[in-house]
Amino acid sequence: MRYAMACWALGLLLSGAPASAQTVNFASLLDELIDRDQLARFPAPAYTCAQASSYDRGSVDPDGPGWFANMDRSFFVRVEERDGRKEYVLMDQQGPGAVVRFWATWHGPGGGPFSNGTLRFYLDGNPQPAIEGPAASVLDGGALCTGPLSEGVSPQTPYGQRGHNLYLPIPYARHCKITYETDVLMDEGARQGEALYYQINYRTYGAETKVESFAVEQLKQHADKLAAVQERLVRSGVDPHDTWSKLSLTGSLAPGKARVLVIDRPGAVRRLQVKVSAANLPQALRSTVLAIEFDKQAAVWCPLEAFFGCGYLAHPYRSWYTEVTSDGLMQSYWVMPFARQCRIHLINL
After folding, report:
1. Is residue 130 within 8 Å of residue 191, measured between CB atoms?
2. How far apart are the first and last CA of the chain?
3. Is residue 313's pLDDT more than 50?
4. SS in 3 state form for 94-160?
5. Binning pLDDT at 50, 70 and 90, where does residue 11 land?
6. How far is CA 89 from CA 75, 178, 205, in A?
7. H or E element that contains 220
8. So what's the pLDDT on residue 10?
9. Which residue, 75, 97, 139, 241, could crosslink 164 as a Cys pair with Cβ 3.0–4.6 Å?
C-alpha cells in the first residue's frame, strides 16, 4: 500500500475564548456557524444543549410496560386553546437561549405525504408569533432562507419520505414556545390522525447572558452576512488567504508497519490530508488506522474511512469538516490544538 499524508498546522495556540459579556444575537450565531475554531474552545458565554421531540411519552420507566414504546410521532408538551384554535405545543422553554436545529417529517391521515399544519414561534411571552407559516415553508420551503441552512434531503427522494431541516439560528432573550396547528385529526401516536415527527435542538445560556431575540426584520438587516455564511458553508475547504506551516509524509506502508509525523511546538492542526493507493483499496481504507496524540495523550484511533466519513468505497463528497475529492484525496478541517507536541500515526493493520 502507498500513501501520502499532509498536515497543515498553525504555529500559535488558539487565542482565548471570547469575553463572556458578549451579547448573543442572530448575527453572532451566524458567525459561529463558520468559525471552526469555536469547537476547539469551551463556549463563552457557556450554554447547555437539549432537545424537544415527539418521542413516545409511554416510555417512562425501564421496569414498566411502556419502556420500549416507539410511536415517536404526534406527541406534544400539551394542547392550548388560542383565539379559537387548537395549538399543539412542541417546545416550551425558559431562556436565554437559541433554537439551533429543527428537523421534522410528516404524513397526513391515511399516509398522505403533505403537512396540513402551521408552525408558530412565540418569543419572550409575546402573544404575536415572531415566525408563523406552513411547516413545509418555514423549515425548508424558503419562507426564512434557502439552503444549506434551510433544506430538506435530496429532491430525488419522494416527498413523503423526506426529512425537512432548518439550521437558521433563532435566539430568544427570556422564553421560547413553538406550536403547531392543523385542521385535521391529531391523536397521540398518530394511530388515526396526522403524524408529525419532530426534533428541536436548543441551547440554554446562563441567566446573566444577554441575548437579543430574533425578529424577521433581521433577515433583511443581515442579508449580506447570511448570504456569505451560506456560500462559505457550501464551499467548505480552507480559506485561500490563510497561511500555515505544512508537514508531509509519502511512501509505502507495509503490513503491520506504521509511520509517524511529529510536530514539536505549540500549534493547532487545521487541515489533514491522506491519499491511499492499494491493490484492495476498500480493505486498505478499513484496515489503515489514523492515530493522533496531543501532548502525549491519545485522542484519535480510527480507521481512515471512518475518520473522513466516507465509508470503505470513498465516494466523492464534501461537508463542512470533511471531504473526499474525485481523485481519492481525503481531507479534514477539524481544528485540533495542542500545547507542546502532536504525533500523527498511520498504522497498516
Report:
1. no
2. 11
3. yes
4. ECCEEEEEEEEEEECHHHCCCCCCEEEEEECCCCCCCEEEEHHHHHHCCCCCCCCCECCCCCCCCHH
5. low
6. 9, 6, 22
7. helix 217-221
8. 65
9. 139
The 3-state DSSP class for residue 288 equals strand
Torsion angle of alpha carbons 295, 299, 303, 304, nearest 10°?
Answer: -60
> Position 178: which residue type?
I
- Return d(Cα 13, Cα 182) in angstroms, integer: 53
Mean pLDDT of the chain, nearest integer: 92
> Taking a C-beta distance cutoff of 8 angstroms, is the pair 169, 101 a contact?
no
Which residues make Cβ contacts (< 8 Å) with residue 167, sequence separation at least 6?
33, 100, 101, 148, 149, 150
pLDDT at 74 over 70: yes
**Sign of the torsion formed by the C-alpha atoms of 183, 99, 201 and 332:** positive
What SS3 state is found at 39? helix
